[in-house]
Write a structure and sequence with these properties.
A hairpin with a 5-residue loop joins strand 3 and strand 4. Helices cover 39% and strands 17% of the residues. It has a domain of 124 residues: Aspartate Aminotransferase, domain 1. By secondary structure, the chain is α+β, with helices and mostly antiparallel strands. 22% of the residues are buried.
Length: 179
């Protein structure tokens, strides 16, 4: 019974345009009008390579953090054979790769990097590789994100394992992106 009442009310109501003697125009979808075709586009990343040197960044850090970051810098330089560069104001990146996503988006990025954040040292490990899980088990105290490794200080981790993680990450990135 309620369904008939609802149907009857809808049938009884005329559009305002019809009442006024005008033809009712069909509304157009704003979503359909705004939709653009999918195509390759240039990435406008917030984080881009700058001309600042890694040393100038290290000088801004406190004494304890600076010592850890200097050690990371030396390790990453030796593994990537790259002096490193700043990516934005707080990320030291080493090595180079050119990423191309399935969507067609392209961008230049580093192979491995780090940043001294308030809570932890963030190490950017790019690439997925077979031995990653096993190496992380041997590493020591840490947390992980999608592509990041978070450690409070280098003394919390096994340095040879960290070096192997960085090395394997660089290999995986090189083979996946050939950049």
């Amino acid at each position: 019974m309620t369904a008939k009442k609802t149907t009857t009310k809808k049938k009884d109501k005329e559009p305002a345009a019809a009442k006024a003697g005008k033809s009712a125009a069909k509304p157009t979808s704003t979503k359909a009008a705004k939709k653009k075709p999918t195509k390759r586009y240039d990435a406008n990343n917030k984080t881009t390579k700058t001309k600042a040197g890694v040393e100038s960044y290290l000088e801004t850090l406190g004494e304890d953090r600076r010592a850890d970051c200097e050690q990371l810098t030396a390790m990453m330089r030796s593994l990537t054979k790259d002096e490193g560069a700043m990516w934005g104001p707080t990320i030291a990146g080493f090595g180079h790769t050119h990423l191309v996503y399935e969507t067609g988006r392209e961008m230049d990025w580093f192979q491995v990097g780090f940043s001294s954040r308030k809570q932890a040292l963030t190490i950017y490990l790019m690439g997925d590789f077979e031995s990653r899980a096993a190496l992380l088990e041997l590493l020591g105290t840490h947390k992980t994100g999608k592509g990041c490794l978070y450690i409070k200080r280098l003394s919390d981790v096994h340095l040879p394992t960290l070096k192997k993680l960085i090395q394997e990450s660089c290999k995986a990135m090189k083979s996946a992106h050939k950049g």
